[in-house]
From TrEMBL, chain B:
Leader sequence segment: none
The name this protein goes by in its record: ABC transporter permease
Transmembrane annotation, as ranges: 58-78, 119-138, 144-164, 176-197, 203-226, 270-289
Keywords: Membrane, Transmembrane, Transmembrane helix
Length: 322, 297
């Protein structure tokens, strides 16, 4: 079976959708979505109700789209639903663990439901539970688990049958900051070290910034943007400057720089400088100018750095435009 | 490992001493369904579950086997010429225990996955929702049938031990088994459907008890009264409305050792058989529709 799976790590996309649409009566959960998802970790971002879970259910073949096409791991969702479900893992957003069963027994059972034999299922479950970090507690009934342990158990069942692709729906939901970091590191490892493609959803953009190679932003069922995480965070050419002192010093610097032909605006305790005009655009010219102006004014430079954008900014910009 | 055939295609492969991929055989849908069936059957008797979940099924089973043991003891010791109770009638006499078993164990197979929403994890795997529903029903059917057949087989062994005529006993046993299978299909369908709709265990048990025990009691009373009043058609027609009266009516018509208040004859046996099969089919359609709906949520 793995020889088939090897292809998935080639250059081809893991998921492709074309004009995917899902309407529930008047509610438009997804509208004309066309995206490609490759290997590695792909973040699916959007507010609640943006269509993230709907997209995952359609890709699993559990919901029928109103229109459009999609294929997962080379199988069409219309006809290949069963084949797809054989090759993917799914960690739902909501609670889905029976309280009176141990994580160990449950993971074994779920691995068998994916087609693994009894001994293979036991071996894989033990492996996967170790990877997600459930130790002795795996033998206790899951009803007594903390949220963090439940999320790990949910992740373990999604990985138990060694899928080629996992859908992780809000894996960090309800976790404290430390557990959240652990979970994100685990998601990153699944994509890189385990070699399993990951589609992970979150409404917290900062999280996906840390772990994903590629980000898809959904808003109200529409695609806002789909590109590599690096592109989102590209340098904008803007600069940020901070000087010793209060807002008075900040404004003195800003006004002086404006006189020299730079467009400045205050941002918190700093001056944000838009990409310099052509005559100052050469490498280092703007930096030198800022240094000189600060020296003339007798201001102490504290910080001079390129202004990197955050995923949030992209999201907010996009939202404003649509 | 497959990494060797794809050098450099998996990032981090060189350091990957931890995660191992699975290269072995993966079962087809039929094997997965069989695994689910066996697990369901075991769970119906509390096997593979917590200790206290074994108490109820085995207590009930013990209670339904006990009279059979006593009967066997008496027949073997006294050397009677026939069993004091027929195979089919023994099941009828222990109907309260059979119904209780089905009512108590159906939620294990039909409510748990829905209530805790682990059903979503099943449906994200190869088995489709209708297959899942049918396999669950099959598990409960076989569990209920085993519950009825264990005392029946004990009686049969006792009859053979005490030297009763083998061919007579065997044909009576086979008739009883066929009727029991039909009854198990009915009871599992009804209790399963009720449990898949009412997700709280208490409500599911009460619902099944109402449908299997209270309703049967009412129908038996109506049948007794109408037989007393010589309203034979009413007595027979009312028997169409409960799995137990269907079972008894068919057993009476087939001469399997159960006597109803009014003999079921003429076209009635056909009507009884048709209604029983339609009821099974209806329950199955209901179960499939219910799990389909849950699956698309």
């Amino acid at each position: 079976m793995r020889n088939v799976t090897g292809e998935q790590h080639g250059p081809g996309p893991v998921i492709t959708t074309a004009g995917l649409t899902k309407h529930y009566g008047a509610v438009h959960a997804l509208t004309d979505l066309t995206v490609e998802v490759g290997a590695g970790v792909t973040g699916l971002v959007g507010a609640n109700g943006a269509g993230k879970s709907t997209l995952i259910k359609i890709l699993l073949g559990l919901l029928e789209p109103t229109g459009g096409h999609a294929s997962v791991l080379g199988h069409d969702i219309e006809h290949g639903g069963q084949e797809i479900r054989r090759l993917v893992g799914y960690m739902p957003e909501h609670d889905c663990l029976p309280p009176d069963v141990s994580a160990s027994d449950f993971t074994v059972h779920m691995a068998r439901m994916s087609g693994l034999g009894a001994s293979a299922a036991r071996e894989r479950s033990a492996d996967v539970l170790r990877h997600v970090g459930l130790d002795e507690e795996r033998y206790r009934p899951m009803g007594g688990y903390s949220t963090g342990m439940k999320q790990r158990a949910k992740l373990a069942q999604a990985l138990a049958h060694d899928p080629q692709l996992v859908f992780l729906d809000e894996p960090t939901n309800g976790l404290d900051p430390a557990a959240r970091n652990d979970m994100l590191r685990l998601v990153e490892r699944i994509g890189s070290e385990f070699g399993i493609a990951v589609l992970v959803t979150s409404h917290l953009l900062g999280e996906l910034e840390q772990v994903s190679d590629h980000v898809i932003v959904l808003d109200g069922g529409h695609l806002l943007r789909s590109s590599a995480t690096g592109d989102f965070l590209q340098r904008t050419g803007s600069l940020l400057v901070e000087v010793v002192g209060t807002e008075t010093e900040r404004d003195r610097l800003g006004e002086a720089l404006a006189l020299r032909g730079l467009t400045c605006r205050p941002r918190g305790p700093m001056v944000a400088i838009d990409p310099p005009p052509p005559e100052l655009a050469a490498e280092g010219v703007a930096h030198d100018l800022i240094r000189d102006v600060a020296a003339e004014l007798g201001l102490g430079l504290m910080r001079l750095q390129p202004d990197r954008r955050h995923l949030e900014d992209v999201f907010l910009d996009g939202g404003a435009h649509v | 490992m497959s990494e060797h055939s794809q050098p450099g295609s998996r990032p981090g492969v060189i350091h990957d001493l931890g995660y191992r991929h699975y290269d072995g055989v993966r079962d087809g849908t039929a094997t997965i369904a069989r695994t689910l069936f066996v697990t369901g059957l075991r769970h119906a008797y509390g096997l593979g579950r917590s200790g206290k979940s074994k108490v109820m099924p085995f207590l009930l089973l013990g209670m339904s086997v006990m009279p059979a043991l006593i009967v066997v003891g008496v027949v073997v010791l006294t050397g009677g010429s026939s069993l004091p109770v027929s195979y089919a009638d023994y099941t009828n006499q222990t109907q309260l225990l059979v119904s209780l078993f089905a009512a108590a164990q159906a939620p294990v197979l039909f409510s748990r996955d829905l209530r805790h929403r682990s059903i979503v994890l099943y449906f994200a795997r190869p088995l489709a929702a209708p297959v899942f529903a049918l396999v669950r029903w099959l598990s409960l059917t076989v569990a209920v049938w085993l519950f009825m057949s264990v005392p029946t087989l004990l009686l049969y062994l006792g009859a053979l031990l005490s030297g009763l005529d083998k061919s007579d006993q065997t044909s009576a046993l086979l008739k009883a088994v066929v009727l029991q299978v039909l009854l198990a299909m009915l009871i599992a369908g009804i209790a399963g459907l009720i449990s898949s709709v009412s997700l709280r265990r208490g409500f599911a048990v009460v619902g099944s008890v109402m449908a299997l025990i209270v309703l049967t009691g009412v129908i038996t009373a109506v049948q007794a009264i109408s037989a007393e009043e010589d309203a034979d058609a009413v007595a027979t027609a009312v028997g169409l409305f409960s799995p137990w009266s269907l079972y008894n009516g068919l057993a009476d018509a087939w001469d399997a050792g159960v006597e109803t208040f009014v003999p079921v004859d003429g076209a009635w046996p056909l009507a009884y058989a048709l209604v029983a099969l339609l009821l099974v089919a209806g329950c199955l359609l209901g179960l499939v529709a219910r799990f389909r709906k849950v699956g698309s949520r």
